[in-house]
Amino acid sequence: MMPLHLARVLLHLLRGLATAGLLFPLVSAARRERLIRNWSRDLLAICGVRLALRGTMPDTPALIVCNHVSWMDIFAINAFRPCRFVAKSDIRDWPVLGWLCERAGTIFIARGRQRDVRRIFQGLVASIHAGERVAFFPEGTTSAQGKVLPFHANLFEAAIDAGVPVQPYALQYRDRAGRLHPAADFIGETTFVESMLTILRHRDLRAELIVLPKIDSAGTHRRELAAAAREAIAAALEVPLEAAQPD
């Protein structure tokens, strides 16, 4: 069955290319959002990934942050309510998906470039003021399930400047028995293609998105917001706080 599933993924990617290239320039923002949501749901379904939501998606402006496990994270979140993501520039080089992420509004940031951070920070504030949903992964890279890496605090300043709360999400991938599924981990030297093939071989993942209480940004420092968000996400994932600290 692997060749069949892989063929379906490739056809779905081609469908995404056609939709982003031909339809996105012609349709309204609301229609584009529906297309992104449905395409993301279909991609995960083809990969055998089921979706589960705990909590209620926010309707009011907020800066959304989430732990980072896999390349699937963007699509798991977009399957419920599409966001404009900030992601590391490496993602732009992913086959097909990198271009699709860019067309969906993803903002790419280069590691270690402070000028990039300042430019993107200003853009995030403007996007939030314009009513867009903005999200990023403050770990800055993926981490194995059962661990939450230190959060980079820089971009949390956007919530303070925009006058909106921080909205934490916690994301985990489990098997049918409810255990954390190792096939979801996208770490180390694993390539995107290797990860995709691993997921297609298993086809029994459940992506569970947990919407946590908002964190008020008024009168706080970005480091305080980062620490509070990290603590909330680690607690929701049942990762002991000690295990969530830097090595």
Provide a quick synopsis of the model.
The longest helix is centred in the first third of the chain and has 22 residues, at 2-23. The model has no long low-confidence stretch (mean pLDDT 87).
Question: Can you tell me about this structure?
Answer:
It is a single chain. This protein has 247 residues and is of the alpha/beta class. The chain has a single domain, classed as Glycerol-3-phosphate (1)-acyltransferase (3-Layer(aba) Sandwich), CATH 3.40.1130. 41% of the residues lie in helices and 15% in strands. It contains 8 helices and 7 strands, in the order ααββαβαβαβαβαβα. It has a 7-stranded mixed beta sheet with strand order 1-7-6-2-5-3-4, sandwiched between helices. Strand 3, helix 4 and strand 4 form a beta-alpha-beta unit. Helix 1 runs antiparallel to helix 2, helix 1 packs parallel to helix 4 and helix 2 packs across helix 3. The model has no long low-confidence stretch (mean pLDDT 87).
Tell me, briefly, the overall form.
globular
Just give the CATH class: Alpha Beta
Oligomer: single chain
Low-confidence stretches: none
Number of helices: 8
What is the CA-atom radius of gyration, in angstroms? 17 Å
Q: How far apart are the first and last residues' alpha carbons, in Å?
A: 41 Å
The neighbouring-strand order within the major sheet is 1-7-6-2-5-3-4
Strand content: 5-15%
CATH domain topology: Glycerol-3-phosphate (1)-acyltransferase
Can you write the helix and strand succession as a string?
HHEEHEHEHEHEHEH
Which bin fits the share of residues in helices?
40-55%
Pathway: Lipid metabolism
Keywords: Acyltransferase, Lipid biosynthesis, Lipid metabolism, Transferase
Domain Phospholipid/glycerol acyltransferase: 62-174
GO molecular function, one term: 1-acylglycerol-3-phosphate O-acyltransferase activity
